[in-house]
Amino acid sequence: MIVAPDRTPLTRDFFDRPVLDVAPDLLGRILVRSTPDGPIELRITEVEAYDGPNDPGSHAYRGRTARNGVMFGPPGHVYVYFTYGMWFCMNLVCGPGDRPSAVLLRAGEITEGVDLARKRRISARNDKELAKGPARLATALGVDRALDGTDACGPEGSPLTLRAGTPVHSDQVRNGPRTGVSGDGGVHPWRFWIANDPTVSPYRAHTPRRRST
């Protein structure tokens, strides 16, 4: 028998925990993106944890800036950043304000609003690729810097909210190095994903960017 995902909203207490507890627990949860054209829902299948001042790979490692300020605020808020001059990526802030940590949403399955996601991701070869990677995920959901700081624990109809969904059993969770992270931060096995899920993005080690000559 197929059991429908739990629609109970995730509360701030869910996010007010260590990032390495929150990250794998986000797998199988439902992210709801409310838009004027209708809702888009995504089942989270892949994430990465970033542990603030203890993590050289984190945007908050060297302290607070205008860019990363949301990471230093209350848990349960959305941190959106712009990267490579063209893409947005979405994170969920975890833990107390004095411990700026966040979980990057790397991939997921669009379970509602597929037609809306397709309009934003016209290059996707199939529906499994709509949110297969953090930039694709943000694009499919229409997430950009305008949503930076959004309270994901807000009321029904807020731009971004989380539902309990169907948590993944621990024996179906895999972990390994984070994708594209260099230096000391590259060694942490803080990428978590659902085993054998076709929407999970491929792992890529960090490749230094060459300067043009």
Automatic annotation (TrEMBL):
Top-level EC class: hydrolase
Gene3D superfamilies per record: Methylpurine-DNA glycosylase (MPG)
InterPro entries: Formyl_transferase-like_C_sf, MPG, MPG_sf
Keywords: DNA damage, DNA repair, Hydrolase
Name of a matching Pfam family: Pur_DNA_glyco
SUPFAM superfamilies on file: FMT C-terminal domain-like
Superkingdom of origin organism: Bacteria
Enzyme Commission numbers on file: 3.2.2.-
Region (Disordered): 150-185
Family: Belongs to the DNA glycosylase MPG family.
Protein name, entry field: Putative 3-methyladenine DNA glycosylase
Organism: Streptomyces siamensis
